[in-house]
Amino acid sequence: MKRKTIIPLGLLAITSIFLLPQSESQTTNLSLGSPSLSELEQRLIALEEKVTKLESENESLQSVISELASSLPSPSNAWSKREFNGETFYVTPALSE
User: Fold this and answer.
1) DSSP characters for 16-70?
2) Can you tell me the distance from the alpha carbon of 52 to that of 56, in angstroms, rounded to the nearest whole number?
3) For the chain: N or C, fewer Cβ within 10 A?
4) Tens digits of per-residue pLDDT, 42-72?
């Protein structure tokens, strides 16, 4: 082998030898601080209950929104409908007499 390839391969091997034990110690530290399986299951159950509660709340709010949308009053006859740049707006009288 040429000297140009031996030097980088040697440096790579030495670097991997020193970094391998450090990466193993990091994974063991992560596993020591992680919650147990039963704690994760309890948390999952609580989150699933929260999801069902929020879904039911969302359904009730959707029905309220549809009721509000159907009960919106139409503009008064004194208002004149205009359009500018594709946007609809109404011109209203300043004083009602």
Assistant:
1) HHHHHHHHHHHHHHHHHHSPPHHHHHHHHHHHHHHHHHHHHHHHHHHHHHHHHHH
2) 6
3) C
4) 999 999 999 999 999 999 898 888 877 776 6
